[in-house]
Design a protein that fits this description.
This protein is mostly beta strands. It has one domain (about 5-65). The protein has one helix at about 5-10; strands at about 40-45, 50-55, 60-65. The N and C termini lie far apart (about 55 Å).
């Protein structure tokens, strides 16, 4: 696959069929059953305002969501 092929497919690499082995057996998609099943969520506050939300996945990765509040939002 060359660079022009990748750009035509949204930058994703597409494997040719000769590179893929097909099997007739179920495949588990998702995390290992040995991981915890719950997600941990932590709110980082500045007084009463939430500034960040930390989401910790059972696999150990953490996603940080920054909360930016517009000051000119109109309420109805």
């Amino acid at each position: 696959m060359n660079a022009s092929d990748a750009s035509r497919h949204g930058g994703q690499r597409i494997l040719p069929r000769q590179s893929v082995a097909m099997k007739n057996e179920p495949v588990r998609v998702g995390h290992s059953p040995t991981h915890a099943e719950t997600v941990e969520i932590e709110l980082l506050r500045d007084g009463d305002v939430v500034r960040e939300i930390h989401v910790k996945c059972p696999c150990g990765q953490t996603l940080v969501l920054e909360c930016n509040y517009a000051t000119d939002v109109q309420t109805t």
